[in-house]
Amino acid sequence: MHLGLEIIVLWREKTSRQRTGITLKIAGNNRLVPVQRVTDEDVQVLASVLSSAVFVTGLDLRYNMLTDAGVKHMATFLQENSTLRYLNLMFNDIGASGAELIAGALHSNGTLLHLRMTGNKIGNKGGLHFASMLQVNCTLEKLDLGDCDLGTQCLIAIAAVLTKNKAIKAINLNRPLLYSQEEETTVRVALTLKINSSLVELHLCKHEIKSFGIERLCEALYENCSLRYLDLSCNKITRDDVKFLGELLKQNQTLEILDLNSNRIEDDGAFYLSEALTLYNRTLKALSVVSNNISGKGLVALSESMKINMELSYIYIWGNNFDEAACMAFSALIQAGRLKPNCTDVEPYEVDGHVYLAELSHGLKKHYYWTPSYGEVENTAANSSLAIAAVSENL
Q: How far apart are CA 176 and CA 171, in angstroms?
């Protein structure tokens, strides 16, 4: 059956049994069931069918074959539609021209709340169109431009717009293409955080952030009272740089999630964090230090902070250098009930009287690039950020 006809059949089934808002999921990466990927021609049929389907409030088209030609139909649909709240176009084949069409449609669209463009190579030019759109659109709350090959000019433009845009609550700017080591984009984002009072969630993964950048970000966050989720994973943050984060955590009363996954904070960095969490901070709920070259001493220090700090409930430590002391420390936390098994990414087991830790598929956002083919998609153990910061849902 042609995909367009399949969509019409599905639409009729939904119409006959459900009038409340639904998300129509037509993902092209189902591993268990062979699927026909959506093409540009199919999108034209889909847009026509959904034009009268007022109960469809979400559309998931991830991992399909949609190009700039098909985006033209989607842009027209967005201009005319008044019910769609969520649109996922991640990992299609959309370029700068398609980005211009989508961004142009959002100049007049007043209903879409969440847009995912993840993995589409829209580049610096395409990103600038979204920056221009954010100057006008006052409805969009969540925007994901991660892995889109954004450039320095685009990031600076987005940072400038966010000083005035009060609607955006969550933005993902992961993995831009930066050719300078001077951290201009990080400095601009820091200046934005000093002014912006609406941003709740910020993802800056793979931004080449180093000592100068992390210091500027921390300085800005002393003045920011809205940010709850800060993602600094996969950067170049070292043990000395964590001093700035430690000092920030001693005073910050807003941050709830801090993701330092895949940096190099080592034991000294873990000590800075544990000191702040033990003696001062009582607002941070989740901390990820996965793959940070931390040895047993640093891990034990973090475990000790959890005995005193009852607010810190989620901690992720896999990929570090476990010794027996670290294994026993986290095993004791879990057995005592202080650390719940679904709030960490390790599980203790014993062999010949010695305690070891095994990895669990838990984390802040394990299902960012993919969703399981069966079981619970929004599993709180695998996506704990959903349980902590509601704005991160679907982002």
A: 13
Distances (CA, A) of 92 to 44, 97, 143, 148, 210: 16, 13, 16, 11, 32
The pLDDT tens digits of the residues spanning 296-336 come to 999 999 999 999 999 999 999 999 999 999 999 999 999 99
Give tens-digit pLDDT for 212-253.
999 999 999 999 999 999 999 999 999 999 999 999 999 999
Contact 69, 40 (CB under 8 A): yes
Continuous segment of H or E residues that includes residue 286: strand 286-288
Residue with tokens 């987005």: 158
- H/E element, 350: strand 346-351
The Cα 133–Cα 357 span in angstroms is 48
Alpha carbon separation from 65 to 32, 93, 214 (Å, rounded): 19, 6, 38
Q: What is the 3-state secondary structure (H, E, C) of 168-237?
A: CCEEECCCCCCCCCCCHHHHHHHHHHHHCCCCCEEECCCCCCCHHHHHHHHHHHCCCCCCCEEECCCCCC
Helix, strand, coil percent values for the chain (each to nearest 5): 40, 15, 50
The C-alpha angle 98, 99, 105, rounded to 5 degrees, equals 90
Task: Tell how strand 286-288 and strand 314-316 pair up.
Answer: parallel
What is the rounded distance in angstroms from the CA atom of residue 65 to the CA atom of residue 70? 9
**Close Cβ partners of 264 (under 8 Å, ≥ 6 residues apart):** 236, 237, 238, 239, 292, 293
Residue type, 149: D
For the question of whether the overall pTM of this predicted structure is more than 0.90, the answer is yes
Q: Whole-angstrom Cα distance, residue 116 to residue 58?
A: 12
Q: How many CB atoms lie within 10 A of CB 38?
A: 24
